[in-house]
């Protein structure tokens, strides 16, 4: 039994803690909001973010930052809070402990992947990223799930695999951190757009086209940034794209549906009440597409809908009226 810390006490941090206990460990689940933590301690459940999952004694919800002193630390805060979280926990970290980012997003303004943010803030710590089709609501109930863990050093990825893999939670190692992180971040944009389509007037053909062409532009940008095309056809790419574009648990899909039904963005985000990473990801990916000179028509139209007041039906028309294309042109897998 190892002592592991999970920083971030929302739905994913809570599900990761449950997983770690099933894998035989003792967990400090650390949050910064005392009301959230007190409620969790009292109810033995995270009623706010992951209702229906009993928290066993091996999980200690706490606001005490000293509890970050552990063999490994999972970071499960929203992407916009990763840098400030790293700064907050840095003084309490055990020297050389593995840091595992589980948030799916990119840093606004810098366009950095979150592992790069952790590397900048926490030099000397091995960094890994965990991503793939894994809704907290299902992981919390021990539903069979498979994910990828990537690190620059295979030994680090294998150490995380050893730490968290169970008979219900299968972990594949990967050395392509860029591909795994870009897959996990960019699929949220496509899920948001799939939801928008649903909200307009659901049509199956249109959604299949959006998901497929969404994967094509995710791959194009990811490969331009140094990722491997194969990763986008794996769990952290198409796997996560499928679950996020189809699951009723998806916050991005739900937000998209409300946007498609005509609700304003701020009202939608308030209603969902949990982090909707696709909104920020759209902004960052749109900027990255310009920086790398990559065509990302779906992301561009999503940007215009979210931030410039374009209507979803105009956005769809814009996509359909683009110039004629060859299906595999500009695909990363051919561009190697
Ligand atoms: N929920 C899932 O199914 C799931 C699965 C895989 C990955 N993720 C990723 O995990 C990350 C967290 O998502 P979530 O679903 O747990 O979000 P959530 O909305 O359920 O919970 C967010 C948590 O972060 C806390 N928080 C907010 N700002 C903070 C800050 N500045 N410092 C510390 N804590 C802060 C909140 O209090 C809350 O406890 C996201 O990047 C998401 O994409 C989520
Ligand atoms: O609920 P979402 O849309 O934030 O997606 C959660 C996970 O990333 C699914 O793998």
TrEMBL record:
Family assignment from sequence similarity: Belongs to the NAD-dependent glycerol-3-phosphate dehydrogenase family.
Originating organism: Dehalobacter restrictus
Glycerol-3-phosphate dehydrogenase NAD-dependent C-terminal domain residues: 176-317
Keywords from the named record: Cytoplasm, Lipid biosynthesis, Lipid metabolism, NAD, NADP, Nucleotide-binding, Oxidoreductase, Phospholipid biosynthesis, Phospholipid metabolism
Signal sequence, start to end: none
Identification of the protein by name: Glycerol-3-phosphate dehydrogenase [NAD(P)+]
Residues at which sn-glycerol 3-phosphate binds: 104, 132, 134, 187, 240, 250-252
Annotated catalysed reactions: sn-glycerol 3-phosphate + NAD(+) = dihydroxyacetone phosphate + NADH + H(+); sn-glycerol 3-phosphate + NADP(+) = dihydroxyacetone phosphate + NADPH + H(+)
Subcellular location: Cytoplasm
PANTHER family: GLYCEROL-3-PHOSPHATE DEHYDROGENASE, GLYCEROL-3-PHOSPHATE DEHYDROGENASE [NAD(+)] 2, CHLOROPLASTIC
